[in-house]
Amino acid sequence: MPLPYLTADVPGAGGLFKAVPEDFEVDELPAYEPSAEVGSDEHLFLWVEKRGRSTPDVAKLIARHVGAQERDVTWAGLKDRQGITRQYLSLPSKFEAKLPGFAAEGVTILRTARHRNKLKSGHLRGNRFTVVVRDVSDLGAARATLARLLSLGIPNFFGDQRFGRDGENAAKGKAILLGGGRHRDRFERKLFLSAFQSALFNDVLAQRIRAGTFAQALAGDVLKKHETNGEFICAEPTVDQPRVEAFEVSPTGPIFGPSMRPASGEPGEREAEVLAAEGVTTQTFEAGGRETDGTRRFFRVPLVGLEVEALAEQALRLRFELPAGAYATVLLRELLKSGEAPAV
After folding, report:
1. What is the Cα–Cα distance from 343 to 329, expressed in whole angstroms?
2. Distance between CA atoms of 119 and 139, rounded to whole angstroms?
3. Catalytic residue set
4. In degrees rounded to 5, what are phi and psi of residue 7?
């Protein structure tokens, strides 16, 4: 079943994006900048611009050039091959002398800096997007949709790119779990397991939007604070709802796993129904080990720093920030309503 629109009552603005790579730019917002302090020379951070290359592709190219193992080159967040993206990668500083001469089509190392820590997955604050949407047919609808998303937040769906070109990654992840957790390729295993968890989260969030309780605190919800990520169970919706409306806290959905904090009441029942429909339980995820420990994910994320610029020939340039793990495709899907937005 297609995912629902939060702004289903607003007409689609129509339009196209990524007519050229320059129509979609992403700048990673790091959790911290490299430090030049004494003792900070063990790792080397590379600020890399790429086009037409995925993050793992670039990491492999750099590792091959300097003679490192692929696992020696790390990153905080995956960036897809489409558009122009800039992000940090890191590798042990002992390979720095071998970097000169590195050249690859679509990849530019803009600068380097030393740091004491290895860059790890998730070590980013978010991403800043600059997107040009062309041939917009209804500018008024576009502005109405963006106003609604500014007020309520963006549904924190996982984007299509999470599930692979043919959408089969989630099914492969489920098969790995039911088969005892084994898979020949470490990177694929992590990707497929995460895709299965992500698909289940999307199902729960879709139910919430269809029920009209997307931005409501329900008894039994696991609410999370946006500033600290602290979690607590909603016992008094009338007390917590003003905090939801102020975007201080938001309801969360399940990234299923044995360490996940379960919801209770009606929200817990809905989560249990999604698991039952797949023929799995929370214990099924134990086969994934640390990769499927489980956690809670915000049902919505704030749209920060939105700037809208009207260009010639019915085009719009959008600038905005999203927190780590959120997908710009979800915003664009709500805006265009012309089928699924292409992966970015």
Report:
1. 7
2. 41
3. 80
4. -105, 40
Say whether pTM exceeds 0.85: yes
- Residues 148 and 204 placed together within one structural domain of the fold: no
Confidence of residue 81 (pLDDT cuts 50, 70, 90): confident
List, for residues 236-281, the tens digit of each pLDDT value. 999 999 999 999 999 999 999 999 999 999 999 999 999 999 999 9
| Calpha distance 36→46 (Å, rounded) | 14
Q: What gap in Å lies between CA 329 and CA 248, rounded to an integer?
A: 24
* pLDDT tens-digit readout, 210-241: 999 999 999 999 999 999 999 999 999 999 99
DSSP element (H, E) containing 49? strand 43-51
Residue 37 has which token pair? 């302090």
320 and 218 in a common domain? no
- Give the list of residues 6+ apart from residue 96 with CB closer than 8 angstroms, or none: 44, 112
CA 24 remoteness from chain centre: 16
Query: Do 149 and 199 have their domain in common?
Result: no
Residue 342 — very low, low, confident or very high, per pLDDT cuts 50/70/90?
A: very low
247 and 184 fall within a common domain: yes
Beta bridge partners of 26: 85, 129
